[in-house]
Design a protein that fits this description.
The chain is mainly beta and 205 residues long. It is built from three helices and twelve strands.
């Protein structure tokens, strides 16, 4: 699928033609450089490897320097492969945000914000146990029973419990493209996307 690497700028809202206020996310998408072309004959599959956001040469190792030199570009901070790209591109070509059109739908992939260690109410949406009165104390946000005692005498795998939350790969599907601004490499999609501000994300058609 065709796509681009981008960086989350932040959220705002815009009005559509019917006067409805739509929440949206602004993404700086590209320009991306084709750093490698995967082919069926050499690699066993067809794909384009894109690089985004220049990296200082003193921060790059020799392998990264050699890889980027083949494409005639500087080392990149973020490199992602896109399989079955719709258009044909050569090594070193630049791909911009103009591959997207207003009104189409895209999938956005990113790393969600890390929330640290959280309880079951925040992490899994539990309602909590019991009431806050009738002599009850310190059980309001507790998980309750996690299994029977004598049989099976263990806690089943996958039991929803407290633990680290967030910081994982998240895909948000079918976000409508509200606006494309090619001169500023910006794309505006309806709704929210995973990650903090300035987080790297990939946008797929």
């Amino acid at each position: 699928m065709s796509g681009l690497i981008g960086k989350k700028v932040g959220m705002t809202s815009i009005f559509d033609e019917n006067g409805k206020n739509l929440p949206c996310t602004v993404i700086q998408a590209g320009p991306c450089i084709v750093t490698q072309v995967r082919t069926e004959e050499v690699d066993g599959y067809n794909a384009l490897q894109l690089g985004f956001d220049d990296k200082a040469e003193k921060r790059a190792n020799k392998a990264e320097m050699g890889h980027s030199k083949k494409a005639g570009t500087s080392p990149k901070k973020k490199v992602v492969e896109f399989k079955e790209f719709e258009a044909e591109y050569k090594l070193g070509d630049t791909i911009g945000v103009d591959i997207f059109v207003e009104g189409e739908f895209v999938d956005v992939v990113g790393i969600s914000k890390g929330k640290g260690f959280q309880g079951v109410v925040k992490r899994h949406g539990f309602a909590g146990v019991g009431q806050s009165t009738h002599g009850q104390h310190n059980r309001l946000r507790a998980p309750g029973s996690i299994g029977a005692g004598s049989d099976p005498s263990r806690v089943f795998k996958g039991m929803r419990m407290a633990g680290r939350m967030g910081g994982g790969r998240v895909t948000v599907q079918n976000l409508r493209v509200l606006k494309v601004v090619p001169e500023k490499n910006l794309i505006v999609v309806k709704g929210c996307v995973p990650g903090h501000k300035n987080a790297y994300i990939t946008i797929e058609k």
